[in-house]
Amino acid sequence: MNWNDMDFFPVMGEMLTSENTLQLDFTAANQALDAVNLSDTAEFDRFVFAQLKSAGKKYGIGGYLENRAIYRRSEVFATESADFRNIHLGIDIWTEAGAQVFAPLAGKVHSFQDNTGFGNYGPTIILEHELEGKTLFSLYGHLFRKDLEKLLVGQEFQAGELLCHVGPFPENGDWPPHLHFQLMWDLGENWGDYPGVAAEKDLEFYQENCPDPNLVLRFYPKNS
C-alpha cells in the first residue's frame, strides 16, 4: 500500500506543521515531569499548556510508540509490572477543548461509547474505512459527550466533514484536553474502544496492527 499516493483531509482542519506545533516529551527522560502531580488533572493541564504558550504554538504532539512515564497517574494502566501498559499506540494532539476534529477520509461509524473512568478515553468514536480493498479503522478519543448524542452506527462521513470536538476534563477521561488519534487494521471484539497503550511484551503485535498515525496526519516534526 502506497500511503504517499493518498490524500487525507487534515484531522484538525489545518495541517500540523513545525510552525504551529510543539513536540511534547512524556518519557521518563523528561525530568520536568517529576515536579508535576500527574494525578491532579488541573496541574497536569497547566504544565502542558504553559509549554504551548511559552513556545507560541497551538498544538502539542505526543508521539507514536513513545515509552511514557505519565501512565502512573491512573489505575487503568497499573497492572503487574510485566503487563504494565506504557507504549503509546496513537498520536496525541494537545490543544484547547472545543477544537474541531474532521474525518480524514470517507468512512462510516463502526462504534462509539463513553469509556468512563479516570485516565480512560472518555467519549470515543471509531470510524471504519475502505482503503485499497482493505478495511482500516480510525479512533478518536477524549471527546465531548455531546459528540455522541446523535451519532448512529453506520452513519457515513465524508473526508473533511466535521466529526467531533476535543473534550474538556473531567468528561474526556480526566486528561488535559487533547485528541488521541489511532489507526487499527483489526479491532477484534472491541466496540467503541481499543487499547491506546500497550505493554512492552505485546508491542510486536500492536505495532503490526496499529500503523503509524502519521501516515494520515502527515506531520514530521522539526522542533529542536
Automatic annotation (TrEMBL):
Signal peptide (from-to): none
Domain M23ase beta-sheet core span(s) in chain numbering: 87-185
Keywords, alphabetical: Signal
Classification lineage: Bacteria, Pseudomonadati, Bacteroidota, Cytophagia, Cytophagales
InterPro entries registered for this protein in UniProt: Cell_wall_metabolism_enzyme, Dup_hybrid_motif, M23ase_b-sheet_dom
Protein name listed in UniProt: Peptidoglycan DD-metalloendopeptidase family protein
A Pfam entry, by short name: Peptidase_M23
